[in-house]
Design brief:
- The protein is mostly helical and 132 residues long.
- Helices cover 79% and strands 0% of the residues.
- The protein is built from five helices and no strands.
- The protein has one domain: Four Helix Bundle (Hemerythrin (Met), subunit A).
- Helix 1 packs antiparallel against helix 2, helix 2 runs antiparallel to helix 3 and helix 2 runs parallel beside helix 5.
- GO terms for molecular function: metal ion binding.
- Keywords: Iron, Metal-binding.
Length: 132
């Protein structure tokens, strides 16, 4: 499971706190996955996915406003990656989740963790370089 590390910090307190919240949501999803005593995890999974979608929309809006504010030159490509993430979350088939809960949750977690890791260390770090 991915954990927050100092290397993820951008030095923009509001963005760093929002990123930590995304890690917390992923951590709860992982806890649901590893809970061997719960047979039906559907409601937890659906709630986590809904929270993830709502929170990322809020976070991306904050980040995009900051990029506009500082005149970030790669704003459009960065926004496209945000839009792609939201689209992926919106296209999750909850029926498929219900049929194979652990497997689907693992796939969703892999996607989220990979995206968070690469996006923060890659695209988001470029914002701070523009800002300095």
């Amino acid at each position: 499971m991915i954990k927050w590390k100092k290397e993820y910090e951008l030095g923009i307190n509001q963005i760093d706190e929002q990123h930590k919240k995304l890690f917390e949501i992923a951590g709860r999803a992982y806890a649901v996955l590893k809970d061997e005593f719960r047979i039906d995890k559907y409601d937890d999974i659906a709630n986590i996915l809904e929270e993830l979608k709502n929170y990322t929309i809020y976070h991306f809006e904050t980040e995009e406003n900051l990029m506009k504010e500082i005149g970030y030159k790669k704003f459009l490509s960065h926004k496209v990656s945000h839009d792609d993430f939201i689209e992926k979350i919106n296209n999750i088939d909850l029926e498929a989740v219900d049929d194979a809960q652990d497997q689907y949750l693992l796939e969703v977690l892999d996607f989220i963790i990979d995206w968070i890791d690469k996006h923060i260390l890659g695209a988001d770090k470029l914002i701070t370089q523009t800002r300095d």
